[in-house]
Design goal:
The chain is an alpha+beta fold. It has helices at residues 4-19, 22-29, 33-47, 63-91, 105-121, 173-179, 224-232, 246-251, 279-293, 303-306; strands at 52-54, 59-61, 95-102, 125-132, 145-148, 158-165, 167-171, 200-206, 209-215, 238-241, 255-257, 262-263, 266-272, 299-300. Keywords: DNA-binding, Transcription, Transcription regulation.
Length: 308
Amino acid sequence: MPHPQVLRDMALFVEVAKRRSFSQAALVLGMPVSSLSRRITVFETAIGLRLLDRTTRRLTLTTYGEAYFAQAMRLVDEAQQAYDDIMAEAKGPSGLLRIAVPSDLWVQQHLASIISDFANGNEHVRLQVGLGYGPVDLMEERYDLAIAVETPRETSLIVRKVVELENGVFGAPSYLEDWGRPMRPHDLTEHNVLVPGPPTNWAFTRGDQTGSVTVSGQIACNSPSLMRSFALAGHGLFSASLACVESDLANGVLEQVMTDWTLRPTPVYIVTTSRLLPAKVRSFIEFAVKRLTGSSEAEEMPRREAAR
């Protein structure tokens, strides 16, 4: 049976190896950098192998360190999951749950109620939600999971597809009265289109027909909620998921154009760094998936597909 200190040192080594940084690992672990460095040195001395190469600028794993890290991380994750499971049996999921959320308007609108309802049913879980406008480094930024509307490129991540959102092109009645209604993709070149930045390419399909057009406009904005506000004020057309503008369409403040042409749907993913998840993370994923799809399971994507 391993000595308890061996297991503790193994967990310390895994945290340092994950982050390739003593200072970042020490911050996560809540201990002084000097103490962490000393424990790792004692651990390397005890096993008689150097696991980390340290320089003033960088920290890398040795060949022995790489091999040990793969095994140690699995054991540490399994031990943490076993602890979380027994704690969850005693009092339910607990601890701080950090979730990264993209700027997509649909995700924000739906997740607000999902997170609120999850919090109401899990009093021992504290939630911290971070809004981002680009890819999130889960490990570097210490998030437990991310909601993503773009397929992550990092092949080591675990990616679960939850749902696909149907998209459309929308504008305010006042704008359409002044500028007219586009009927086909090429017509959009004569319109003000709200886009995130530089001219953007939109791809459409209609039956077996395809159409592609580069769109741009007077106002560029990387916030979907601001885009909607500009569209409501009559500044141009914008694309969004149908579910996102449901109430606007029902109230007549926005109208959909080119209804016979279909924009590529937007997939929504849940992303984690491991399949071995703490009870708080598993509980939230199951809760969110059930709310979004009516099912408790999400499709896990093959890694080569997730890397595209």
